[in-house]
TrEMBL record:
Keywords: Kinase, Transferase. One of its GO terms (molecular function) is kinase activity. It holds the Pfam family Cytidylate_kin2. The keyword Kinase applies. It comes from Lentihominibacter hominis. This is Cytidylate kinase-like family protein.
Amino acid sequence: MMNIQNHVITIGRQLGSGGSDMGKAIADHFGFHYIDKEILVRAADIMDADEENLEMVDEKNISALTAMARSAAYEMPYIAKEWYIPTSEQLFKTQTQIMRDSVQQGPCVIIGRCAPYLFRHYEKHTSIFLQAEMDRRIERLERTFDKKLSRKKVIHDIEKEDRERAQYYHTFTGKKWLDLRQYDFVLDTTPFSDEEILNILIYYITSRFPELK
């Protein structure tokens, strides 16, 4: 049973809406454990898999057949660690256990990975969803990369990521990722600076949980 004393803030997000940046800033502000891509390090150790291969299926719906084809398992009697690619279901189960264990140990901010759904019945949980207009999403992603990508390429990546996250979320929750009714707080980050977004989110969180003020 999870420790009811620990707060859990989960953040769903559209690519380029600022979810990861805001999640990290919120975790730093409250002194909470931050769970995002770092979870792949622990999952790789547990699954005896290569972290880069896990990243290929992280928040994506990769079937057993596709994973087998990618790892060329049908040609190899023994799958070397650097070749092994698990299914999305295998990684999801491992990540879910890691997240639940982390919450037992202390308060957490968790990015994506169906966490808003997984912790929906948890007493001290609140779910946030961040969205933004396409131009703002493109602008944020262009700032993220060292070299400037073409607008066409960025839009393609955003649309692809949206499809993959929606499919992944539906596969493991039976819910629609963009059904905003399932989140406690939804924010369009388009008109705000990062500082303003953070201030809005902290105000919401401390209003929801006054003990965090």
